[in-house]
Amino acid sequence: MVAVALCALLLAPLVWTFRQFEMRVGLERLRAEQARNQALLARDLAQREAAQAALAAAKLATADQNKAGSLWAGLSVNHPTFVAGKTKDLRIDFALVNDGKKVIDPKISESEIIINGKELGDSGQILGSVQMGARSTSLPPGESLHFDCLLGDQFKEPGIYRVSWKGATFQSSEIVLRILPKEAC
Fold first, then answer.
1. Closest Cα to residue 108, out of 96, 98, 93?
2. Residue 104 CB neighbour total at 10 angstroms
């Protein structure tokens, strides 16, 4: 009986230590599971917010398209980068598509070129001077109008430029181009 008591006394700290170890491991597993659950919850919340933002953007785009009419406008640039002082060949291509069912006057000469959020002061003069033909005042359904302008004089300083085109019944998405410093050659 004394031997059993001695064994019990000697084993008690060992059992206590083992139980403490099990509790710590269990607690760490619980914390890891909580962290994983929080991460999953954060991911799900982010996905929900992204979906809501995409839905809001789609509604806004549809509202803008309905408000703007049935013209689609697009821009492109012949090169995404130029070196300062060497922008004379910088050409922006303009495209306009009539997605509607009626002939539309897109009023090109009244439209605006927007650079970094500011209207280019002589947009009407620049766009009005381009030879486009009859489609510039009478764009039939399903037809498109394409033209380009040399605009290198508008981009002399190094930097990043965001360019869009806006008319009474249309607005293009932005294009981005960059003018590099002369030393970058």
1. 96
2. 21
List the structure tokens of 32.
Answer: 């890891």
Q: Answer yes or no: do 105 and 164 share one domain.
A: yes
For every one of its 185 residues, what pLDDT tens digit does the chain have, with 9 covering 90 and above? 877 777 777 777 877 887 888 888 888 888 888 888 887 887 877 788 777 877 777 666 555 544 445 899 999 999 899 999 999 999 999 999 999 999 999 988 899 999 999 998 888 788 877 777 777 788 999 999 999 988 888 998 999 999 999 998 899 999 999 999 987 55
Is the CB of residue 139 less than 8 Å from the CB of residue 106? yes
The CATH number of the domain holding residue 103 is 2.60.40.2970
* Of 95, 92, 76, 77, the residue nearest 139 (C-alpha): 95
